[in-house]
Write a structure and sequence with these properties.
With about 180 residues, the chain is of the alpha+beta class. The chain has 3 helices and 10 strands, in the order E-E-E-E-E-H-E-E-E-H-H-E-E. It has one domain: Nucleoside Triphosphate Pyrophosphohydrolase, CATH 3.90.79.
Length: about 180
């Protein structure tokens, strides 16, 4: 990473983080009509409030990876899923740009899941929607999608069977700063 922030004062860290927060996120896709669509949620909370994002959340103590992602998807969309595989691990660092911005550090475990035919419904976490890759590209170009999540989806569309480790540094204004990707073939 180009600008590690180990000395960022605790009061300037999201939720006063002391350590990177483990988070599970899912790539959920379906053929709808004749197009592959991906399920996203519009975040109601920081960080990234108001942006479209992968479905997921905090990995609770005592849960397996599979239990965490299945629970998060059910809570946020109502869709029942089965864990299929770990696709990517992303070390995401949100770097504050202004004195009023908070920094954050997440370790994202990106999962492939098999989704039931349940209809995705808005729950308490935000609106949900199915998007084609070109629609997600437009969201990215207009700054309406979490930049790291777009990066994850772009990688998945190009290489659905590769496993990778990604380091992403994102400025607090939502722009990607630095990305390093390590492929595991």
């Amino acid at each position: 990473m180009s600008h590690p922030r180990p000395h960022l004062p605790i009061h300037r860290r999201w939720m006063e983080q002391k350590h990177p927060m483990p988070v599970t996120v899912a790539i959920i896709h379906r053929e709808i009509g004749d197009e592959c669509r991906y399920l996203l949620i519009r975040r109601l909370k920081e960080p990234y409030m108001g942006k479209w994002a992968l479905v997921g959340g905090k990995w609770d103590f005592g849960e397996t990876l599979a239990e965490s992602i299945v629970r998060e998807i059910r809570e946020e969309t109502g869709v029942r899923t089965t864990f299929a595989a770990l696709h990517n691990v992303v070390n995401e660092l949100i770097v504050p740009r202004a004195e009023t911005d908070q920094g954050a550090h997440f370790l994202l475990f990106v999962c492939d899941v098999i989704a039931s035919a349940d209809k995705a419904k808005e729950q308490s976490e935000g609106a949900v929607g199915w998007f084609t890759f070109p629609e997600m590209l437009a969201l990215n170009e207009s700054g309406q999608i979490v930049p790291t999540d777009y990066l994850i989806l772009e990688n998945y569309v190009k290489r659905p069977f590769d496993i990778s480790y990604t380091e992403a540094e994102v400025y607090s204004d939502g722009r990607l700063s630095v990305v390093h990707r390590f492929e595991i073939k």
